[in-house]
Amino acid sequence: MEDIRKILENRILILDGAMGTMIQDYKLDENDYRGKQFSEYTSSLKGNNDLLSLTQPKIIEEIHYKYLESGADIIETNTFNANSISQSDYNLEDYVFEMNFQSAQIAKNAVKRFNKNDRSKKFVCGSIGPTNRTASLSPKVEDLSFRNITFDELYQSYYEQIDGLVKGGVDLLMIETIFDTLNCKAAIIAINNYLTDHSLDFRL
Fold first, then answer.
1. pLDDT value at position 180?
2. Does residue 143 fall inside a structural domain?
3. Of these four, 45, 172, 188, 200, which has the most CB atoms within 10 Å of its CB?
Protein backbone atom coordinates (compact mmCIF):
# COMPACT_ATOMS: atom_id res chain seq x y z
CA MET A 1 0.00 0.00 0.00
CA GLU A 2 2.88 2.38 0.68
CA ASP A 3 4.00 2.11 -2.97
CA ILE A 4 0.47 2.83 -4.17
CA ARG A 5 0.14 5.90 -1.96
CA LYS A 6 3.47 7.30 -3.18
CA ILE A 7 2.55 6.84 -6.85
CA LEU A 8 -0.87 8.44 -6.33
CA GLU A 9 0.83 11.58 -5.04
CA ASN A 10 2.14 12.18 -8.55
CA ARG A 11 -0.26 10.58 -11.02
CA ILE A 12 -3.52 8.70 -11.57
CA LEU A 13 -3.38 4.92 -11.55
CA ILE A 14 -5.29 3.21 -14.36
CA LEU A 15 -7.64 0.32 -13.46
CA ASP A 16 -8.26 -2.47 -15.98
CA GLY A 17 -11.57 -3.12 -17.72
CA ALA A 18 -14.27 -5.77 -17.51
CA MET A 19 -13.37 -9.44 -17.21
CA GLY A 20 -16.70 -10.92 -18.33
CA THR A 21 -16.77 -9.35 -21.78
CA MET A 22 -13.20 -10.45 -22.41
CA ILE A 23 -14.11 -14.02 -21.46
CA GLN A 24 -17.02 -13.93 -23.92
CA ASP A 25 -14.53 -13.49 -26.78
CA TYR A 26 -13.21 -17.00 -26.11
CA LYS A 27 -16.67 -18.53 -26.77
CA LEU A 28 -16.22 -21.21 -24.12
CA ASP A 29 -18.64 -24.13 -23.88
CA GLU A 30 -19.73 -26.31 -20.95
CA ASN A 31 -16.69 -28.57 -21.21
CA ASP A 32 -14.34 -25.59 -21.18
CA TYR A 33 -15.88 -24.37 -17.94
CA ARG A 34 -15.70 -27.83 -16.39
CA GLY A 35 -12.13 -28.62 -17.35
CA LYS A 36 -10.66 -31.87 -16.07
CA GLN A 37 -11.32 -31.07 -12.41
CA PHE A 38 -15.10 -30.85 -12.81
CA SER A 39 -15.65 -33.10 -15.83
CA GLU A 40 -18.01 -35.37 -13.87
CA TYR A 41 -19.79 -32.61 -11.96
CA THR A 42 -23.58 -32.94 -11.93
CA SER A 43 -24.46 -29.21 -12.05
CA SER A 44 -24.22 -27.07 -15.17
CA LEU A 45 -21.18 -24.80 -14.83
CA LYS A 46 -21.24 -22.78 -18.04
CA GLY A 47 -21.28 -19.06 -17.27
CA ASN A 48 -19.50 -19.40 -13.94
CA ASN A 49 -16.62 -17.15 -14.93
CA ASP A 50 -14.97 -17.26 -11.50
CA LEU A 51 -14.54 -21.04 -11.88
CA LEU A 52 -12.28 -20.44 -14.89
CA SER A 53 -9.51 -19.47 -12.50
CA LEU A 54 -9.42 -23.17 -11.61
CA THR A 55 -10.28 -24.78 -14.94
CA GLN A 56 -8.83 -22.31 -17.50
CA PRO A 57 -6.12 -20.35 -15.65
CA LYS A 58 -4.15 -19.66 -18.83
CA ILE A 59 -7.12 -17.79 -20.33
CA ILE A 60 -7.56 -15.66 -17.22
CA GLU A 61 -3.85 -14.85 -17.08
CA GLU A 62 -3.88 -13.97 -20.78
CA ILE A 63 -6.71 -11.49 -20.19
CA HIS A 64 -4.81 -9.90 -17.31
CA TYR A 65 -1.72 -9.65 -19.49
CA LYS A 66 -3.64 -7.93 -22.28
CA TYR A 67 -4.79 -5.25 -19.83
CA LEU A 68 -1.24 -4.78 -18.59
CA GLU A 69 -0.04 -4.39 -22.18
CA SER A 70 -2.79 -1.80 -22.72
CA GLY A 71 -1.41 0.34 -19.88
CA ALA A 72 -3.39 -0.76 -16.82
CA ASP A 73 -1.59 -0.12 -13.54
CA ILE A 74 -4.02 -2.21 -11.49
CA ILE A 75 -5.61 -5.49 -12.56
CA GLU A 76 -8.62 -6.96 -10.78
CA THR A 77 -8.84 -10.60 -9.79
CA ASN A 78 -11.39 -12.82 -11.50
CA THR A 79 -13.49 -13.02 -8.33
CA PHE A 80 -16.56 -10.85 -8.84
CA ASN A 81 -18.85 -13.75 -7.91
CA ALA A 82 -16.32 -15.87 -6.01
CA ASN A 83 -18.33 -15.94 -2.80
CA SER A 84 -20.27 -18.76 -1.14
CA ILE A 85 -23.64 -17.07 -1.71
CA SER A 86 -23.24 -16.69 -5.48
CA GLN A 87 -21.44 -20.01 -5.86
CA SER A 88 -24.28 -21.85 -4.14
CA ASP A 89 -26.13 -21.59 -7.47
CA TYR A 90 -23.54 -24.04 -8.83
CA ASN A 91 -23.10 -26.06 -5.60
CA LEU A 92 -19.49 -24.87 -5.47
CA GLU A 93 -19.43 -23.24 -2.04
CA ASP A 94 -16.58 -25.53 -0.96
CA TYR A 95 -14.30 -24.09 -3.67
CA VAL A 96 -14.63 -20.41 -2.77
CA PHE A 97 -11.33 -20.09 -0.93
CA GLU A 98 -9.50 -21.88 -3.75
CA MET A 99 -11.13 -19.66 -6.39
CA ASN A 100 -10.01 -16.50 -4.64
CA PHE A 101 -6.55 -17.76 -3.77
CA GLN A 102 -5.85 -19.02 -7.30
CA SER A 103 -7.34 -15.90 -8.91
CA ALA A 104 -4.96 -13.73 -6.91
CA GLN A 105 -2.04 -15.98 -7.84
CA ILE A 106 -2.94 -15.86 -11.53
CA ALA A 107 -3.03 -12.06 -11.50
CA LYS A 108 0.29 -11.91 -9.64
CA ASN A 109 1.81 -14.28 -12.22
CA ALA A 110 0.64 -12.01 -15.03
CA VAL A 111 2.35 -9.05 -13.34
CA LYS A 112 5.58 -11.02 -12.87
CA ARG A 113 5.55 -12.12 -16.50
CA PHE A 114 4.88 -8.58 -17.68
CA ASN A 115 7.70 -7.22 -15.53
CA LYS A 116 10.27 -9.40 -17.27
CA ASN A 117 10.15 -6.87 -20.12
CA ASP A 118 8.68 -3.81 -18.38
CA ARG A 119 9.73 -2.83 -14.85
CA SER A 120 6.90 -0.37 -14.25
CA LYS A 121 5.06 -0.95 -10.99
CA LYS A 122 1.82 -2.90 -11.35
CA PHE A 123 -0.68 -3.97 -8.69
CA VAL A 124 -3.30 -6.66 -8.14
CA CYS A 125 -6.70 -5.66 -6.74
CA GLY A 126 -8.97 -8.20 -5.07
CA SER A 127 -12.43 -7.82 -6.63
CA ILE A 128 -15.32 -8.24 -4.17
CA GLY A 129 -18.75 -8.20 -5.82
CA PRO A 130 -22.23 -7.70 -4.35
CA THR A 131 -23.37 -11.39 -4.31
CA ASN A 132 -26.66 -12.22 -6.01
CA ARG A 133 -28.80 -11.50 -2.94
CA THR A 134 -29.77 -8.32 -1.15
CA ALA A 135 -30.13 -7.69 2.57
CA SER A 136 -32.35 -4.61 2.21
CA LEU A 137 -34.99 -5.68 -0.30
CA SER A 138 -37.40 -8.57 -0.52
CA PRO A 139 -37.26 -10.82 -3.62
CA LYS A 140 -41.00 -11.41 -3.13
CA VAL A 141 -43.27 -8.59 -4.24
CA GLU A 142 -46.13 -10.13 -2.23
CA ASP A 143 -44.09 -10.09 1.02
CA LEU A 144 -41.93 -7.03 1.49
CA SER A 145 -40.73 -8.22 4.90
CA PHE A 146 -39.18 -11.40 3.46
CA ARG A 147 -35.38 -11.72 3.17
CA ASN A 148 -33.45 -14.59 1.60
CA ILE A 149 -30.13 -13.61 3.21
CA THR A 150 -29.03 -12.29 6.59
CA PHE A 151 -26.40 -9.70 7.40
CA ASP A 152 -24.35 -12.31 9.27
CA GLU A 153 -24.43 -14.67 6.27
CA LEU A 154 -23.16 -11.89 4.02
CA TYR A 155 -20.44 -11.02 6.51
CA GLN A 156 -19.20 -14.62 6.75
CA SER A 157 -19.26 -14.99 2.97
CA TYR A 158 -17.22 -11.83 2.47
CA TYR A 159 -14.77 -12.77 5.23
CA GLU A 160 -14.07 -16.11 3.54
CA GLN A 161 -13.52 -14.42 0.19
CA ILE A 162 -11.16 -11.84 1.68
CA ASP A 163 -9.15 -14.63 3.31
CA GLY A 164 -8.51 -16.27 -0.06
CA LEU A 165 -7.65 -12.99 -1.80
CA VAL A 166 -5.21 -11.79 0.85
CA LYS A 167 -3.48 -15.15 1.21
CA GLY A 168 -3.26 -15.28 -2.58
CA GLY A 169 -1.23 -12.07 -2.55
CA VAL A 170 -3.43 -9.14 -3.62
CA ASP A 171 -2.10 -5.62 -3.03
CA LEU A 172 -5.46 -3.99 -2.28
CA LEU A 173 -9.14 -4.85 -1.96
CA MET A 174 -12.08 -3.27 -3.75
CA ILE A 175 -15.79 -3.61 -3.03
CA GLU A 176 -17.42 -3.04 -6.41
CA THR A 177 -20.82 -2.76 -8.08
CA ILE A 178 -22.65 -2.87 -4.75
CA PHE A 179 -26.38 -2.30 -5.27
CA ASP A 180 -27.39 -2.63 -1.61
CA THR A 181 -26.01 -0.53 1.24
CA LEU A 182 -26.38 -3.34 3.79
CA ASN A 183 -24.40 -5.69 1.55
CA CYS A 184 -21.74 -3.02 1.28
CA LYS A 185 -21.72 -2.51 5.05
CA ALA A 186 -21.23 -6.25 5.59
CA ALA A 187 -18.30 -6.24 3.17
CA ILE A 188 -16.68 -3.20 4.81
CA ILE A 189 -16.97 -4.69 8.28
CA ALA A 190 -15.63 -8.02 7.05
CA ILE A 191 -12.60 -6.31 5.51
CA ASN A 192 -11.89 -4.17 8.55
CA ASN A 193 -12.24 -7.12 10.91
CA TYR A 194 -10.08 -9.38 8.75
CA LEU A 195 -7.32 -6.80 8.53
CA THR A 196 -7.47 -6.19 12.25
CA ASP A 197 -7.49 -9.92 13.01
CA HIS A 198 -4.36 -10.39 10.89
CA SER A 199 -2.62 -7.06 11.66
CA LEU A 200 -2.58 -6.01 8.00
CA ASP A 201 -2.50 -2.57 6.40
CA PHE A 202 -4.86 -2.45 3.42
CA ARG A 203 -7.35 0.21 2.38
CA LEU A 204 -10.76 0.11 0.74
1. 86
2. yes
3. 45
